[in-house]
Amino acid sequence: MNFQRNLISILFLLNVPQIAVAQTPSNNDYISGALGFSQPTDADLTGAGINTSLDSDLGYGVSFAYGNAFGNNWRAEGELNYRRSAVDSIGVNNGAGDTSAFGLMINGYYDFHNDSAWTPYLGAGIGGASVSYDGVSPVGGSRIDDNDWGAAYQGIAGIDYKIDDQTSVFTEYRYIGLSDLDFKTDSGVNIDADSGENRIMIGLKWSFNKPKPVPVAATPVQAPAPEPKPQPAPIQQAKPAPPIVPDVPKNYLVFFDWDKSDLTPDVRAILAQAVANSREINVTRIQSIGHADRSGSDKYNLGLSQRRANTVQAELVRLGVPSGEISVLGRGELEPLVQTPDGVREPQNRRVEIILN
User: Fold this and answer.
1) Which pLDDT does position 22 carry in this prediction?
2) CA 158, CA 220: separation in Å to the nearest integer?
3) What is the mean pLDDT of the chain?
4) I need a labelling partner for 132 at 20 to 30 A (CA). Which of 67, 150, 228, 325 fits?
5) Handedness of CA 164, 167, 170, 175 (dihedral sign)
6) Which residues pair with 289 in a beta bridge?
7) Left, alpha or beta for 73 (phi > 0: left; psi -120 to 50: alpha)?
8) CA-CA distance, 139 to 30, in Å (whole number)?
9) Rg of the chain in Å (alpha carbons)
10) Is residue 121 part of a domain?
11) CATH code where residue 78 lies
12) Are residues 118 and 10 in the same domain?
């Protein structure tokens, strides 16, 4: 009965991420896998005439997870994990045998986004684990070859490094607690056990949702009006015609990759054309206004938009525009071209506007 109740509870917990994903407007699914070291804490073994502790050697652990990032620093996942360790001692005696655990957990995380590719995070999880004692002895003059389901919880602290828009590596520390474990020795004595575990893991995370690139097209430039054909000279001298002012674009848009502020060759070509056009119409002021999408925090996006505007200013200066003629402004995520919910990566909102005055 205990096994059935624990199994039903765990299956319910594993459905929680799917419910959360269905309700969130920004669906960013991911999978992850990790491996590392597992060091169980001393396990207290108590039963009829038995009151001792079990100490384990350093072992190994692996985990696999499927999760969803909600776009507001929070994410949740369902996790399968496994660990195995050899017994070192039981009480004052040298021990024999192995202990292992197969766990099913539901985890919640908070990511601390910042201006770098490194993202620290904290998390916690609840669930259950099937714990096996294989040939564990000596326990009251006998040994334990048994397994049981028990409640499990864990606390998590780690840091993630983003490789690209879809892939990142992470390392983390976990403390896992187990309780309500009941075993039986080969001699028929019931044993209660509670234990914990320390894990250090390193892993790889892959996101399913890669931002779609938006092709950057050069702003079309109108050719100057053709020179009028010469007319026969009038008898009286005509007044000189006013100078022809070329009709050229005064507004330009350049786009950036997600979380980037560097210039692509296409962007550099557009800026070069804008500078050339500014000289034809005697521009005295150029505005560089940076924008960001809504996939990060307001504070981070404001800084990112400012860096994009500064990068465009630096390129205009390199092309010969005096820095005193360029004004720079970062607008963050306040003026999107495409309206989106918070947390959505929208390529058309990652831009800088160049305005010729």
Assistant:
1) 37
2) 49
3) 86
4) 67
5) positive
6) 329, 353
7) left
8) 44
9) 33
10) yes
11) 2.40.160.20
12) yes
- Within a domain: residue 128? yes
**Has residue 108 got a pLDDT over 60?**
yes
User: Contact at 8 Å (CB) between 85 and 38?
Assistant: yes
Distance, in Å, from the CA atom of 179 to the CA atom of 29, rounded to the nearest integer, reads 32
Range of the domain at 260: 251-356
> Looking at the predicted structure, is the pLDDT value of residue 232 above 80?
no
DSSP string of 278-308, one letter each residue: HHHTT---EEEEE---SSS-HHHHHHHHHHH
Is 234 contained in some domain? no
Instruction: Give 237's pLDDT tier (boundaries 50, 70, 90).
Output: low
The more confidently predicted of residues 133 and 165 is: 133
Q: What total number of domains does the chain contain?
A: 2
d(CA 105, CA 177) in angstroms, rounded, equals 12
Q: What is the pLDDT of residue 222?
A: 65
pLDDT, position 247: 72
What does the alpha-carbon distance between residue 331 and residue 352 come to, in Å, rounded to a whole number?
10
d(C-alpha 326, C-alpha 318), whole Å: 12
171 pLDDT band, cuts 50/70/90, is very high
DSSP string, 100-138: EEEEEEEEEEEE---SSSEEEEEEEEEEEEEEEEEEEEE
Rounded to whole angstroms, what are the CA distances from 344 to 17, 165, 291, 349? 19, 13, 14, 10
Residue 109 identity: Y
Q: Quick check: is 220 in a domain?
A: no
- What is the C-alpha to C-alpha distance for residues 354 and 288, in angstroms, rounded to an integer? 5
Q: What pLDDT, on the 0 to 100 scale, is given for residue 314?
A: 94
Do 203 and 255 share a domain, yes or no? Answer: no
Residue-wise pLDDT for 22-78, tens only, equals 333 345 899 999 999 999 999 999 998 899 999 999 999 999 999 999 878 999 999
Which pLDDT belongs to residue 179? 82
Distance of alpha carbon 67 from alpha carbon 106, whole angstroms: 10
Q: To which residue do tokens 């505007």 refer?
A: 309
Q: Which residue has the higher pLDDT, 2 or 255?
A: 255
Contacts of 105 (CB under 8 A, 6+ apart): 13, 78, 79, 81, 125, 126, 127, 152, 154
Q: Indicate whether 356 pLDDT > 70.
A: yes
